[in-house]
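Hi everyone,

Forwarding the result from last night's run.
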Amino acid sequence: MVRWILLLCAVCVPYSSAAEDAIAFVTFVEEPSATCVSRSGVQILVRNTHPTRALRVWLDRYHMGIGTGDRSRSDLKPGAEPEPLGCSRSLTGPQEWRPVRAAFVD
């Protein structure tokens, strides 16, 4: 019985560490954009930094530090251009995106 439990745990650990590794390759990029600069902000983009593997990432949007309930999902290919999310400031205040989950797609 003890061997079965140890085997089960050994199988679970690599899966959880693989999920953590995927989110490490999600990065945000800031670029000037006319619309965003006029609001004293920058364009926020998300990028996959893994050299060979595609990622699926889920992001939550926050406005003025409060979750908006908006969740987006993006498939990001390695080496691709970053995907635009929006401005760091809306007309009413700052906004940001936070990764909730990421997984390798391949």
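Strands lie at 26-31, 43-48, 55-63, 66-76, 83-87, 95-104.

Cheers,
N.
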